[in-house]
Amino acid sequence: MNTDTVPQSIGRYCIDGVLGRGAMGVVYKAHDPKIDRIVAVKTIHPTLLQTPDGGDLRQRFLREAQAAARCLHPNIVAVFDCDEHEGLPYIVMEYVQGRELQDFLRYTPRVDAETTVSIVGQMLAGLGFAHANGVVHRDIKPANVILLEGGRVKVADFGVARLDSTSFTQHGAVLGSPGFMAPEQFTGTGVDHRTDIFATGIVLYLMLTGHRPFPGERTTEVMYKILHHDPPDVCLLNAQLPPGLSAVVRQALARDPAQRFQSADAFARALRQALGGGGPLPADTPATAGGADDTTGTVVLGVAPGPATDPPPAAPDLPSPATAFNDSEQALMAQVEKDLAFHVGPLARVLVAKAAPHATNTDQLYEALAGHIPNSAERDAFLKRRPRVRGELTGLSRGTTTQIRAKFTEADLEKAQRALTRYVGPIAKVLVRKAAKEAVSLADLHETLAASVPEGRDRTRFLADLTG
Fold first, then answer.
1. How far apart are CA 243 and CA 339, in angstroms?
2. Both 420 and 390 in a single domain?
3. Among this protein's residues, is 192 annotated catalytic?
4. Which of 80, 347, 364, 395 is the most exposed place for a label (fewest CB within 10 A)?
């Protein structure tokens, strides 16, 4: 099969077009006719399979896709299937419509601390779940982080990206992203889940400061800095940051894995603490979520997943806009956030929350928010989405941020949890309790939970289950 031409089908999947091409292969948009679902299909370049390492690469590609399929989590792009077509291995993944963090950072090179902690916290929630299931990503970078409308974050290429970051030393080709690699990836001293901690620390540094911690034009220059240099303190580059973030970033970027956070959960808790979101930080724990592996590329296995009723803690949400509005005004706030998120990603929720108390009508609100969109054409497009009916908004003019929370019965929550568990597994319990704290009505609760279901067809069934 020639990946330069777009095939009509791969396996049972009907190809609709190309989503992207890279060093490893091609990702196609496809349709699964068996269950009427849009998916993404990733293949390997045939030339890579023809190298002396080709047979090993084929087996690892399929084996690691099988491992990644265990990682069903709201913050992970799901893997549905893996097989071969005309001798070419492929994997089938969840099709996610969103914006890469890499693209978002082009327009917003420095992100405020609150939004950064929310995005990185969700990344760490997905990583922690994967690590507990014995899977290490190995290629965490902004291009592998997808920002969805409504503030959800998903990490892509779990279990598969690790192939991209493997060094085929026999042939002198290094694949991957040197600027986001941990020291042990360069030295070959063993890679485990703490490698993902280091890479996430680099993403955190980049978002908080707008600068890479280890810049360089050549791979050798970047590698030398990662192995020997400490980056400038984040608070020196951005004086508006809470001082506690300095120590968090420093620990995440420790060259010695033993000095880093020993789990994704510990990293996330430290971030929330530094932002002022909790009591004393519990002591970190030794590395237990997987041992170091060798250079053969086998899946990192170590600790079995926790009990089904005790999933990893959910990441913090972005702050919600002021909700002391009547029903129509609350619907407007949701629409404003959705319109803005198309241009600025998850930052939209923070910006709306800050602007809403100071606006007395929709025109003022949209005008204030438009200033955060750097591209003039996108600004104009955002302003054109203003609702036709304009006027004073009483909730906004009061300038209050009092939360309106609906009261739900235990029966309501148990029913929602049972229905959601069918689609997302044990994490449903956490999602339901979390959504119940913010939802303003039973319908709002159901809609919020439906957003956690990966596929549109399944979302429809989920809502039908709740109303039936």
1. 33
2. no
3. no
4. 364
